[in-house]
Design a protein that fits this description.
Blueprint: H1 28-32, H2 35-39, H3 43-48, E1 54-64, H4 69-77, E2 84-96, E3 99-106, E4 109-117, E5 123-127, E6 130-139, E7 142-152, E8 155-156, H5 159-162, E9 164-172, E10 175-184, E11 188-203, E12 209-212, H6 217-229, E13 236-239, H7 243-251, E14 263-266, E15 269-272, H8 273-284, H9 286-297, H10 300-312, H11 314-318
Parallel strand pairs: 12-13
Antiparallel strand pairs: 1-2, 1-11, 2-3, 3-4, 4-5, 5-6, 6-7, 7-8, 7-9, 9-10, 10-11, 12-14, 14-15
Helix pairs in contact: 8-9
């Protein structure tokens, strides 16, 4: 991934106490942690457990487990991977409000679970017929998943049969790190897997995305303006120097290497030139709604040529940065890539 707006493939900013669209359920993990705790988590942890309708990540895992027949049978029932060192892992997280479906593809098995809110600020993870109920606690810049109870087909199991589960989501060397160890009475270690993941792709389908030139001084001022006036956190921002920004430009017929137009992507539709600016202003509300409406009264044939001239000469007129605009910690959740 191209480093841009303070982001690299191994260190992607996440969400720091984001607002949520009216009527839309908040993401699962931010809703179960205090905003103050969430803001203290490592950026890779925020990114992995934050927003995005679809997240894809890949890495390496060390998988261990008892090799006796009962442990192997339980792993098969619960669709857990077989033990093995240095297994490649690819994970897909699909989010629908506060419900998340995690599909983990190991070299030696595929594991799928559904996470959603439980009772009393708990989180329930369903693996086949078994549901694990966790409370989440921040430990430094990581999340500890603390097992509270286990249910089988909806019926609670006696605590003596639940064994112990250690689960931790953290960061190591700028990458998301995980460490899970599950032990059962009479079996010992059912499964343990630990390793790292790097985020490959995040799609934030719920929010309009503004693609901007990360090294253009004028464009950076436009980004500052949006961050200041978009109080509801409606828009997401992607620099054209990043993978997501380049992909959106190309998908909507604009050159990723030298775009001469501002791009807004909303509900799968791309808007460019002054139409895009007017549409953004109208959604900021207040007096900016009026400004955006007045812009649209002016014929496009008059306003677009002036805009394109400024866009073509933006570096000469306003200057160029040596690197992409760096988001402050409290605004990093607004940027994607």
């Amino acid at each position: 991934m191209t480093a841009c707006a303070g982001m690299t493939a191994g260190s992607l900013p996440g969400i720091v106490g984001p607002p949520h669209d009216g009527g839309m359920a908040p993401a699962l993990f931010p809703s179960l942690l205090d905003a103050a705790d969430w803001s203290q988590l490592a950026p890779p942890v925020q990114r992995m457990h934050g927003e995005g309708a679809l997240l894809e990540a890949s890495g390496t895992a060390q998988v261990e487990g008892d090799t006796r027949i009962l442990a192997r049978l339980l792993r098969r029932i619960l669709t857990l991977p077989d033990p093995g060192a240095d297994q490649a892992i690819a994970i897909t997280i699909e989010r629908d409000g506060s419900r998340e479906t995690w599909t983990r593809r190991f070299t030696r098995g595929r594991m799928r679970s559904v996470l959603q809110p439980g009772n009393a600020m708990a989180m329930r993870e369903r693996l086949g017929p078994v549901s694990l109920h966790f409370s989440l606690r921040r430990d430094g810049n990581a999340i500890d998943w603390q097992l509270r109870r286990v249910t089988l087909l909806g019926l609670p199991l006696p605590r003596a049969l639940c064994g112990g589960v250690r689960s931790r989501s953290g960061a190591h060397e700028g990458r998301y790190a995980f460490d899970i160890d599950t032990r059962l009475p009479g079996i010992g270690r059912l499964i343990a897997y630990r390793g790292w993941l790097e985020i490959d792709h995040v799609r934030c389908a719920a929010h309009p995305v503004i693609v901007f030139d990360g090294v253009c001084v004028l464009c950076s001022r436009w980004v500052d303006f949006i961050l200041r006036h978009d109080r509801e956190g409606r828009f997401r921002l992607a620099a054209m120097q990043g993978v997501e920004g380049r992909g959106l430009l190309a998908a909507h017929g604009l050159s990723p290497d030298d775009p001469s137009s501002f791009l807004l992507v909303q509900d799968g539709v791309g808007y460019s030139n002054t139409d895009a600016i007017a549409r953004v202003l109208r959604q900021l509300g207040g007096r900016w709604r009026l400004v955006g409406s007045l812009m649209r009264i002016v014929p496009r044939a008059m306003r677009d040529p002036l805009y394109r001239w400024v866009a073509r000469n933006r570096y000469r007129l306003f200057g160029k940065r040596d690197q992409c605009r760096l988001p402050a910690p409290d605004e990093a959740w607004r940027f994607i890539d």
